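Q: I'm a student working through a structural biology exercise. My instructor gave each of us a protein and asked us to get a predicted structure, then write a short paragraph describing it. Mine is Helix-turn-helix domain-containing protein. I'm not confident about reading structure output yet, so if you can add a plain explanation after the tokens, that would really help. Here is the sequence I was given:
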Amino acid sequence: MASTDKLSPRDRLLDAAARLSYRDGVSVGVEALCREAGVSKRSMYQLFDSKDEMLAASLERRIPWYEARFSHPDAAAASPRERILYVFQRLEKASVETDYHGCPYLAALVELKDPGHPASLVARGVKERLARTFRAEAERGGARDPERLARQLVLVFDGASARAGAGVENLADGLATSTATALLDAAGLA
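A: Happy to help. First, here is the predicted structure for Helix-turn-helix domain-containing protein. I'll explain a few features afterward.
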């Protein structure tokens, strides 16, 4: 990875927005973001029309990393059940990291409360892709009601992520995976 001083001001701002908004919430101030990035406010506004746009760009930039984190390493050989359960196993593993604060996309949706906010649009897109992925896997696995199962799995994922991120639930015991397994069994997923 390149050292921070070799990154462009835009990249430093996006990195700072990702770090601070994940740790402190999306209401983090422009001054704090600029200070963290080592970039002047004037430069920030030359690069982005607003803090809202910078936050959205920061969330957008993390999508490939986020989605790769939950993608089965041998997806072609894995069954739909294995690919779904891998998502929950990875969630459990991530949830015990010291800097874990839950799903950054769910957090943005909850904190912003404005469905038209640029960051809300990005976050909602990520959550909708997760639901579509679960639905497609449920269809491939022969679930009786793939749409309902996908909704249930997202509910478990988001709930487990939020509770672990808030420090009120420890997922190290496999609770999220066992809950997802029960849903898969009840839905008749092979």
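A: Here are two points you could use in your paragraph. Residues 112 and 120 are 7 Å apart (CA to CA). The domain at 4-58 is CATH 1.10.10.60 (Arc Repressor Mutant, subunit A). It's a good idea to check both against the output above yourself.
Q: Great, thank you!
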